[in-house]
């Protein structure tokens, strides 16, 4: 797989958020200087309005999680909505609230593994996936979880939010859990039209070293 294809796989599978900011989308065009105005209030990022679950125990998040649903307005995600691949996340507690992350999925009929690290922040339940520079960091919030059956996690990059529903078992999704996920996604403007389900079968197990993408410290 070429470097560009590896980058695309990482972006779609893990971030599932739009990578382009307004300037990127418009080709970086600049407008004429405007008259100075009163200072604006500090911008509140969408994920800042989402408090983490109360008294999150990062250690209990360790183990295997199956990605069941994703809510996102990312064009890449919408384009691939009918070709979603089964995805499994394995979290390993390291120390000081840090999590080692292994994500396994299939691309072009080949199993791939992507390695990352979720770093702690000053707020328990909020983590950071570091990018090549701080502007490319991904903020992560553990929004809801009972540790044993489900977890709803929020991912924000460049102001765009993606909401993901993970379960401990791919075949054990309760209706109340699904409803809770849909309600949390709706609060971020992600209605059912932006909710995409993933296959619950044929997950990747073993991955050979030639198909491991190491995103530590970043990609």
Radius of gyration: 18 Å
Major sheet, described briefly? 8 strands, antiparallel, barrel
Q: Total strand count, please? A: 10
Mean pLDDT across all residues, rounded? Answer: 85
Model regions low in confidence, pLDDT < 50 over at least 5 residues: 17-31
| Overall 3D shape | globular
The portion of residues forming beta strands comes to 25-35%
Q: If helices are DSSP runs of H or I spanning 4 or more residues, what is the number of helices?
A: 4
Order of helices and strands: HHEHEEEEEEEHEE
N-to-C span: 15 Å
Topology at a glance:
Blueprint lengths: L2 H13 L6 H4 L37 E9 L3 H5 L8 E6 L5 E9 L2 E11 L5 E4 L8 E8 L4 E8 L2 E8 L7 H12 L8 E3 L14 E3 L5
Parallel strand pairs: 4-10
Antiparallel strand pairs: 1-2, 1-8, 1-9, 2-3, 3-4, 4-5, 5-6, 6-7, 7-8
Task: Give structural attributes.
219 residues; alpha+beta; 32% strand
Walk me through what this model shows:
- Strands 1-2-3-4-5-6-7-8 form an eight-stranded antiparallel barrel.
- The chain is globular.
- The protein has helices at residues 3-15, 22-25, 75-79, 175-186, and strands spanning 63-71, 88-93, 99-107, 110-120, 126-129, 138-145, 150-157, 160-167, 195-197, 212-214.
- Mean pLDDT is 85; it is low at 17-31.
- By secondary structure, the chain is an alpha+beta fold.
- A hairpin with a 2-residue loop joins strand 3 (99-107) and strand 4.
């Amino acid at each position: 797989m070429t470097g560009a294809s590896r980058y695309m796989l990482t972006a779609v599978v893990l971030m599932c958020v739009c990578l382009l900011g307004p300037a990127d989308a418009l080709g970086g065009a600049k407008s004429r200087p405007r008259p100075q105005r009163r200072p604006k209030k500090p911008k509140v990022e969408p994920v800042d309005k989402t408090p983490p679950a109360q008294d999150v125990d990062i250690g209990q998040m360790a183990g295997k999680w199956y990605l069941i649903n994703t809510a996102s307005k990312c064009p890449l995600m919408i384009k691939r909505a009918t070709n979603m691949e089964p995805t499994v996340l394995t979290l390993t507690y390291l120390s000081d609230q840090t999590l080692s992350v292994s994500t396994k999925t299939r691309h072009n009929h080949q199993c791939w593994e992507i390695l990352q690290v979720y770093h702690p922040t000053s707020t328990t339940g909020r983590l950071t996936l570091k990018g090549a520079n701080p502007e490319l960091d991904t903020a992560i919030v553990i929004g809801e979880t009972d540790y044993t059956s489900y977890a709803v996690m929020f991912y924000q990059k460049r102001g765009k939010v993606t909401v993901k529903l993970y379960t401990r078992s791919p075949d054990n999704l309760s209706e109340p859990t699904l409803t809770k996920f849909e309600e949390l996604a709706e609060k971020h403007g992600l209605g059912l039209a932006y909710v995409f389900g993933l296959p619950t079968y044929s997950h990747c197990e073993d991955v050979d070293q030639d198909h491991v993408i190491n995103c530590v410290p970043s990609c």
